[in-house]
């Protein structure tokens, strides 16, 4: 198994790759893995490799026009203390897309990256 196979990769199409790098590394604890060309970077958090593709990349150009808006899909990140994360992200002026929601499995809230892609912060119950 090569290093690429140790990650689960998700591609997010973003308008501004440097802004996306800053958001994911500063606000959500991702680590910059590579930024080989201005329109592309990848960041990692644990086994998740997030591919940040700008409009000039082949990944973005392959997206059908009717699917070009950020959708209902989202990455799911587990946090230890949702209230502390909410407070920290509010102070950093990160846009929230929902109110905190509770269910049998735990609590969650949705935030958005600079391009409008959704991120779910989830604190498991118990």
Automatic annotation (TrEMBL):
Domain called VOC: residue spans: 6-124
GO BP term, pick one: L-methylmalonyl-CoA metabolic process
Alphabetically ordered keywords of this record: Metal-binding
Record Gene3D superfamilies: 2,3-Dihydroxybiphenyl 1,2-Dioxygenase, domain 1
Signal peptide interval: none
Gene Ontology MF annotations: metal ion binding; methylmalonyl-CoA epimerase activity
SUPFAM superfamilies linked: Glyoxalase/Bleomycin resistance protein/Dihydroxybiphenyl dioxygenase
InterPro entries for the chain: Glyas_Bleomycin-R_OHBP_Dase, Glyas_Fos-R_dOase_dom, MMCE/EMCE_epimerase, VOC_core
Annotated protein name in UniProt: VOC family protein
Source organism of the structure: Kribbella capetownensis
């Amino acid at each position: 198994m090569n290093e690429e196979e140790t990650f689960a990769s998700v591609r997010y199409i973003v308008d501004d790759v440097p802004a996306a790098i800053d958001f994911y590394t500063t606000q959500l604890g991702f680590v910059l893995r590579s930024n080989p060309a201005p329109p592309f970077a990848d960041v990692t958090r644990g086994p998740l490799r997030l591919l940040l593709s700008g409009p000039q990349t082949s990944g973005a150009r392959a997206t059908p026009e009717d699917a070009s808006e950020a959708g209902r899909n989202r990455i799911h990140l587990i946090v230890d203390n949702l209230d502390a994360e909410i407070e920290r992200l509010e102070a950093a002026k990160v846009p929230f897309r929902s109110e905190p929601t509770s269910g049998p499995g735990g609590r969650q809230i949705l935030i958005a990256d600079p391009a409008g892609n959704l991120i779910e912060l989830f604190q498991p119950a118990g």
